[in-house]
Amino acid sequence: MKRILTLAIIALTIWVGYEVYAAGNDEVGPPGSVPNVLRSGEASGFHIATKSWSFDYDSVIASADNSVMDMTGIHDGIFYKAGKPYLRLRAQHVTVNMTTKSFVATGPLHIETIGQPRKRTLDTTAATWDDSQKLLTLANKTTVATAGDDQPLVAGKITINVRTGDVHIDQISGHVAF
Q1: HEC states along the chain?
Q2: Which of 3, 82, 114, 158 is a plausible cystine mate for 138, CB 3.0–4.6 Å?
Q3: CATH homologous superfamily, domain 36-174
Q4: Which pTM does this prediction carry?
């Protein structure tokens, strides 16, 4: 009887020890500890109550606290001027700071005007958006084409103030018809 009782105590101790060890192995961490992965959707940035931009994306990985979003496959990005679509963007990758609503886009990137008398397109490899100032900066070599013109311009840097419509272009080369 003593031997059976000893074996039972040993077996109970092993079983309790295993259960304590295994407790929690199959639990998911607390909310906000794992990045969120989403497939195809739309993200928007607002400045106060006015929409600044929106993106249709193929996939997004959001940080655990949703403060940073890494989006891939931007196929219909829109910049808004006074609440109306102003520029369209296609990009390979965009990283958005969801606190400031500013972002960095890497490419290839294709930007085109919307609703302008002459359609213009801009092709480059990187852009930054400062949401507080409504500034789109294309710091890399950018090809600017205008509908109806045979020769595009090449610029070293372009800054577009979406709020005012002002454009600043540095290091221009190409053909201009007057």
Answers
A1: CHHHHHHHHHHHHHHHHHHHHHCCCCCCCCCCCCCEEEEEEEEEEEECCEEEEEEEEEEEEECCCCCEEEEEEEEEEEEEECCEEEEEEEEEEEEEECCCCEEEEEEEEEEEECCCCCCEEEEEEEEEEECCCCEEEECCCEEEEECCCCCCEEECEEEEECCCCCEEEECCEECCCC
A2: 158
A3: Lipopolysaccharide (LPS) transport protein A like domain (2.60.450.10)
A4: 0.72
* Nearest alpha carbon to residue 104 among 158, 64, 68, 133: 68
Contact 74, 131 (CB under 8 A): no
